[in-house]
Amino acid sequence: MREGGSLPALGEADDGFKYVVKLLGAGHGKKALIAEFLGSMIAKAFKFKVPETVLLRLSNLFGITEPDEEVQELLRNSEGLNVGLHYLSGAATFDPAVNEVDPLTASKIVWLDAFLTNVDRTRLNPNMMIWNNELWLIDHGASFYFHHAWRDPEKSALDPFPYIKTHVFLPYATRLEEADRLMRQAITPRTLSKIVDLIPAVWLEEETSEISGEERRDVYRKFLNDRLKNSQFFVNEAIKQQKMLVR
Fold first, then answer.
1. Are residues 38 and 220 in contact, defined by beta-carbon separation less than 8 angstroms?
2. How far is 47 from 28, CA to CA, in rounded Å?
3. Which of 94, 108, 146, 195 has the greatest number of beta carbons closer than 10 A?
């Protein structure tokens, strides 16, 4: 699938289902897989509709006849554990000019993306689909951008997230304070910790880093719990940016 910076593949797994496969060998590698996995699982915990998220093991035989050298290299670098998202056959890309969304739903999705620090839900690239007349959220690989630099994650947890100004739903998110109350009630630190515990250990290992994989897991856990506890920082920023849009 040529669109998107992560160069996902469409593959059929041994369970007979098709999946959009986010590949280990693409772009940001393990960090993009962690972001995709955490983002999808957390969105599901909030009762948003997201494609089923699975772990897919790519063997060294997969795509062995692929004639494109670039794709062949991508597949070889992706041998091992990857992320798969159930393929929504026949789904249409969400179009804000055509598809309507109610203010509370818009506010909840803005809240979710500010919570995850997801920079990639814009008008040009909404990363949402309409499937069976329902709104589905896809592609959370651009979340948790603090982990690319890995500097001062505690400070990052308090980031007001000014990038929310580009969010496709911000003009319609007129119930952000209500959304904040409902979203905080919908999940607990224990649930977030359980989701973080599901990150495969192999994705957390960095050969050139002095930080162990389990220490990295603890950073993600603390980041999410601190962000939930201090949601007023990003909610206030979203409200400020939303008001500026309607002036």
1. yes
2. 28
3. 108
Max CA separation in the chain (angstroms): 57
List all residues 6 or more positions away from 72 whose beta carbon is below 8 Å from its beta carbon.
Answer: 63, 66
- In 46-98, where does DSSP find H-type helix? 69-76
- Contact between 141 and 39 (Cβ < 8 Å): yes
**Helical ranges in 125-208 per DSSP H:** 146-149, 153-156, 176-186, 189-197, 201-204
pLDDT interval class at 68 (50, 70, 90): confident
Nearest CA-CA partner of 140 in 168, 117, 163 = 117
Measuring CA to CA, which residue among 84, 80, 78 is closest to residue 13? Answer: 84
Please check whether residue 118 is in contact with residue 190, taking contact to mean a CB–CB distance below 8 angstroms: no
Cα 245 to Cα 6, 15, 60, 167, 180, distances in angstroms:
31, 47, 50, 11, 20
- What is the rounded distance in angstroms from the CA atom of residue 202 to the CA atom of residue 19? 21
Distance CA 118, CA 31 (A): 13
pTM of the model: 0.94
Query: What are the tens digits of pLDDT across the range 137-155?
Result: 999 999 999 998 888 888 9
- SS3 of 116, please? helix
- What is the distance between the alpha carbons of residues 27 and 64, in angstroms, rounded to a whole number? 21
Give the side-chain half-sphere CA count within 13 A for 245.
Answer: 17
77-96 pLDDT, tens digit each: 889 999 999 999 999 999 98
Cα angle 80, 18, 198; round to 5: 45
Helices 103-116 and 232-245, axial angle in degrees (round to 10): 130
